[in-house]
Amino acid sequence: MSDLKVITGDFVNLQISTSKDDISFNEKRFPKDLTIADLKVKLELITGGNCNTMKLEAYTKENKFVCRLDDDKALLGSYPLDNGMRLHVIDQFQIRNELDFADVPKYELSQEEYNSKSDSVRAFLQKNKLGKYNEDNQKKKEMLEAEEKKLAENMSVGSRCKVSVQNAPDRLGTVMYTGPVEGLTGYWIGVKYDEPLGKNNGSCKGKQYFECPDKYGAFVKPHNVICGDFPELDYDLNEEI
User: Is 133 found in the same domain as 53?
Assistant: First the structure.
């Protein structure tokens, strides 16, 4: 059996999130020929988790579950990951005692005591200027959100539009919603496509933002949407081929 080889791009850009509410990170670039075990080591330095106990999950840009990265010997490139997807790190993010008895009361630090500790995850992030403690990244994030908001506010509900997303064909549709979407970051454009090329019926996580048939709706980032005089496609079902 020949050795595995990465035949797609050599690197993939992934957003990083963790199961710890106050920890989130901007996009990171990883080589696809990295094993999952080595990836966990890198993520240990980034997130403060433990590479021996952490579990990894992948999600799309639309926050839909893709797969678990559960084979430490596999290459990162062997999983169906594309640029912009999110890698979610699940861990306790704390050093656990080897003698962890269930009947022993757990000691919880007050917020004041936690803030004063120099060996906490928060102290690690602050010291290394990671996540929300990186001022440059925070400023870039704020600028991006401001730009997204401006773009979204300039798009009117009912406008015809063209959606252009990387590695996907252009799709025509109608703007049905603009604004934030619960559970997702930033601003979004709700689009009803002319064809059943979407992912929903105008709802996200049980909340309805606009009405359309199933598989005709999608939520897209504003920079992927262009409004203009795009005539609705006319499908002649009686036309002979």
Answer: yes
Q: Are residues 156 and 133 in the same domain?
A: no
CATH number (domain holding residue 208)? 2.30.30.190
Task: Give the other-Cβ count within 10 Å of 108's Cβ.
Answer: 7
String of b and e for 152-189 (b: at least 16 CB within 10 Å)? beebeeebbbebeeeeeeebbbbbbbbeebeeeeebbb
Number of domains in the chain: 2
Residue reference for tokens 């992030």: 125
| pLDDT tens digits, 22-77 | 445 667 889 999 999 999 988 888 777 888 889 999 999 888 999 999 999 999 99
Cβ pair 189, 221 in contact under 8 A: yes
Domain containing 130 equals: 11-95+124-137
CA atoms of 165 and 167, how far apart (whole Å): 6
Does residue 123 have a pLDDT over 50?
Answer: yes
Query: What CATH number does residue 74 fall under?
Result: 3.10.20.90
